[in-house]
Description:
Layout (H helix, E strand, L loop, with lengths): L1 H34 L3 E4 L5 E2 L10 E4 H6 L3 E2 L32 E2 L3 E5 L3 E3 L2 E2 L5 E5 L5 E3 L4 E4 L3 E9 L2 E10 L2 E2 L3 E4 L4 E3 L2 E2 L6 E4 L5 E4 L2 E4 L3 E9 L2 E9 L6 E4 L3 E5 L3 E9 L10 E4 L5 E6 L4 E6 L4 E9 L2 E10 L5 E4 L3 E4 L4 E9 L3 H4 L2 E5 L5 E5 L6 E6 L3 E9 L2 E9 L2
Parallel strand pairs: 2-4, 6-13, 15-22, 24-30, 32-38
Antiparallel strand pairs: 1-3, 5-8, 7-11, 9-12, 10-11, 12-13, 14-17, 16-20, 18-21, 19-20, 21-22, 23-25, 25-28, 26-29, 27-28, 29-30, 31-33, 33-36, 34-37, 35-36, 37-38
Amino acid sequence: MEKQKRKITFKFLIWAAVLLLCAGGAVHSNADTAQAETTVYVTKTGTKYHSRKCGNGTYTPTTLSNALARGLTPCSKCYSGGHTPSPAPAPAPGPGENIPPAVKPLKISKTSLLLVKGQTKKLKVSNAVETVSWNSSKTSVATVSASGKVKAAKKGTAIITATSGTVSKTCRITVEEPKLSAKKLTLNINQSKKLKLSGCGHSVKWSSSNPSIANIQKGKITAIRAGSANITAKVHGKKYLCKVSVNKPKVKKITLGTKTVKMEYGQEKKLQLSVLPSYALNYYKFSVKSSDTSVVSAFFDNLSNTLLLESKHKAGKAKVTVSLGGKTVTCTVTIAPPLVKTLTLDAAALTIEPGHNHSISFDIDPYVCTDYYDVIWTTSNSSVATVESAYDGSSYAYIQALREGKADIKLTIGNKTAVCHVVVQP
């Protein structure tokens, strides 16, 4: 009986071991099944993942975890029932195993760019696990180098694609080609002109290299004074240039206060000059000329904008010509000695005995007239009385009484005459 019990117990242990081994194999198989990744299908530039080859294109199998790491979403056709697979959980690491790092999605520095023709911009990609390749959908609009440097070629739109392995990111490039309405302008002072930058829908920053010559406000150029300046339109970091030249003003007319001038010896006289337009004086110099400098000399006074005339000690006429900016004006200057204002004798009447002498003097204003006019003494009756100047330039004379009677002694200097009535009697 005891032997029978040991035999049954042995068989029981064998069956228990077999069951335990079977149970262990089943658990291992289920764990392996739980840890298996779901396979999905993706295209190179698509934004969805599929359960099969859905539609046209080249589909590449990948794991669901990889697709989700790229930011892809499930295809509505493949998963129409609303059910989307979830990636199987990764097996727990065993003792001493390292936990693998989480996969980060591929990123591009810009998803859209606005450039102008000739401008460049560097695009960058982060989180790439493989070599990045670059491609442009329209190289005639924008090109891209192997390092991601984009160059705008002409107006239009292009898609720049960065690919790392099976993951791609894109950037939309819009190229504008602005043009100035003029590259050169010639203006007159105070003239205005509108400058436009076409082919660009963004705000433009205007500036002038010399606002004192040509100023610009919102594209409107105003000429201030003669010279040159560069007008710059800046947009998207690119500059467009227009060279502006401002002409000197044209002199329309020169006028003098009078066309005829009379002057005495050694005088100065100023004549007011006016120019049209007045600001032309800032750009031209007066040319003044006298036809006879021995009669009169002429100068231009910059401080008072007047014509300065200086007469000489010589009678005569001279023509003075003033020129400015191609225009001329003339005036005739006549020089004559000063006129005598007053002439008087120290005695208006005299009584003299025959055979006697008497001196007589005169007073004249202005006194310098004696330098320019002859002093002429005369008598109305030379048989009664005579008169003679003391000497040349003298201001007095001698009257000689000859016989009984009357005579008028007359003095003439320039335009004035003075008379003394002389009576000769015993």
